[in-house]
Write a structure and sequence with these properties.
Blueprint: H1 2-20, E1 28-30, E2 60-68, H2 72-86, E3 92-98, H3 103-114, E4 121-124, H4 128-136, H5 144-149, H6 154-158, H7 160-166, E5 179-182, E6 185-189, H8 190-196, H9 207-221, E7 224-227, H10 234-242, H11 264-278, H12 285-290, H13 295-299, E8 304-307, H14 313-317, E9 328-332, E10 350-353, E11 355-358, H15 365-379, E12 389-390, H16 397-407, H17 414-420, H18 438-453, H19 460-477
Length: about 475
């Protein structure tokens, strides 16, 4: 699987090399002002040594190409406009470019990074593996030196966990997370819950309670209770199911030489998903994949009362684009039973993401570094309305909640957001040991899940047994952990 992704990336790179040859990164232009008339003299400006100038040494303004995977109208264009206004006389401007955060879009992104074309700063998604893989492939610039030079303390500004997870042993920083969220929460239709007489599980619930809610929602509304959204993001469903295993979600121990995929938690979670489909409570897998069920097509249209994702809350706020008259809440994904009560709030799935990185081929690295600092230290605040909640400790949580509550009035349940923000965003925990095999293991699990959910494998136990055999073999063939 990893070899296939690498082959696709290499093919795309070869196809685009000819098109991109000669591309110039970061345009330049005159810094502004009229030229002195003949006979007049002006004092020379020492641009090269001016700490507040981020353009070229000869006084020209540079333009950074900023790539991101979110539509500009969800606060990103405002963010860019704010920066450009603030830095109009400081020698740097930013141009916004959107890419698709999917397989094709990330392949394109990495192709451009490899050939040093058209990208200066970008927001990357996924887990730390992807960030580190890009860095090790020479795609990313280490901007730790700039942060040190301005006294930016990662542990103080973004939390001790951020410093521990994203500053390598040699001090290298290829990218820092900028947002806080929780991988263990889902979106629910508050109006549908109330109509069905189902209590909103602000503080969590169990599989049995979830099943009963699905039954009532299906009976009372006549629509699906749940859309799992496998086509949109299958990996998030693996996280939901394994969340109560903590660090042992994939591996039996810290040696990471054997997977934990035959654990009863994996089996119970998979069985829950199968049951919801068999009972007619959830969108069938075939329909989910064939029709590419998304928040827009399944949830905001009222075709289901729950959608298994958190990150798309911004769409629920956008009633102009996606007209709907119900309120959305965020709630924790259920746990297998009361024996996992400690995990009901899914606090162990607090997570930081949206990594901001600088391309190794960026020609204007000082300007790029300054944009990164500005973005982290409050510059990204306009995208709070896109449900991208800042990780930076300099932000006041209550102010963020007030902004969201005002903007999202009538579309998002404020009580659920209050519960979400009770977690310490600077002390995110994430989940699991991180190895060089995680992505391949998740692909294997998903392949076996599809076979079971499609009726090709007789039981959840057999499904996870096969997944474990294949995953353990991947580790064995690679000689254990990747260096």
């Amino acid at each position: 699987m990893k070899r296939e992704r690498q082959a696709a990336l290499l093919l795309s790179m070869c196809l685009l090399l000819g098109l991109l040859a000669g591309c110039q990164q970061g345009g330049t232009g005159d810094a502004g002002g009229s030229a002195p008339s003949q006979g007049q003299t002006t004092a020379a400006v020492d641009y090269a040594n001016d700490p507040n100038w981020f353009g070229t040494d000869d006084g020209k303004t540079v333009t950074l190409n900023f790539w991101c995977g979110i539509q500009p109208e969800y606060g990103y264009q405002q963010l860019v406009d704010n920066f450009n206004a603030e830095y109009a006389d400081k020698g740097v401007q930013v141009a916004y470019n959107r890419y698709s955060n999917n397989t094709d879009g990330n392949t394109q992104l990495e192709t451009y990074l490899l050939v040093n074309a058209n990208i200066d700063v970008f927001i990357g998604y996924g887990n730390r593996d992807r960030l580190y893989n890009r860095g090790e492939a020479g795609m990313l610039y280490d901007y730790s030196g700039y942060l040190d030079s301005i006294g930016f303390d990662v542990a103080k500004e973004l939390g001790e966990n951020t410093a521990a997870e994203y500053i390598r042993e040699d001090g290298t920083i290829w990218g820092l997370p900028t947002k806080f969220d929780n991988k263990g929460w889902i979106m629910i239709n508050v109006d549908a819950f109330r109509a069905a007489g189902v209590e909103i599980p602000y503080n969590g619930w169990t599989y049995d309670e979830f099943r009963e809610a699905c039954r009532k929602l299906n009976e009372k509304t006549g629509t699906y209770a749940m859309c799992w959204g496998f086509d949109f993001n299958y990996a998030s469903k693996l996280t939901y199911v394994s969340s109560v295993l903590g660090q042992n979600n994939l591996f039996t121990d810290e040696t990471m030489t054997e997977t934990n995929l035959d654990h009863p938690v994996w089996i119970e979670g998979l069985q829950l998903i199968k049951d919801t489909m068999d009972e007619g409570w959830a969108v069938p897998l075939a329909d989910d994949l064939a029709e590419k069920m998304t928040v827009q097509t399944a949830y905001l249209t009222g075709n289901c009362a729950m959608y298994a994702i958190y990150s798309q809350l911004r769409l629920a706020m956008d009633t102009a684009t996606y007209p709907h008259d119900f309120v959305t809440a965020l709630v924790p994904f259920p746990v297998p039973g009361d024996e996992y009560a400690a995990y009901k709030d899914q606090a162990n799935q607090s997570y930081s993401g949206d990594f901001i990185s600088i391309a190794s081929g960026c020609e204007n690295k000082k300007a790029a570094c300054e944009f990164v600092r500005w973005y982290i230290e409050g510059g990204m605040n306009p995208i709070i309305l896109a449900a991208r909640y800042p990780l930076w400790n300099g932000n006041d949580t209550q102010e963020i909640l007030e902004v969201i509550s005002t903007h999202a009035a009538g579309t998002v349940d404020p009580e659920s957001l209050t519960h979400l923000f009770k977690a310490d965003r600077s002390a995110f925990t994430g989940a699991g040991y991180v190895s060089g095999h995680d992505e391949d293991i998740r692909d294997i699990i998903w392949e076996e899940w599809q076979a079971y959910l499609s009726g090709e494998i007789p039981s959840a136990e057999e499904t996870m047994r096969l997944a474990k055999l294949r995953a353990d073999e991947v580790i064995k063939e690679a000689g254990g952990l990747l260096a």
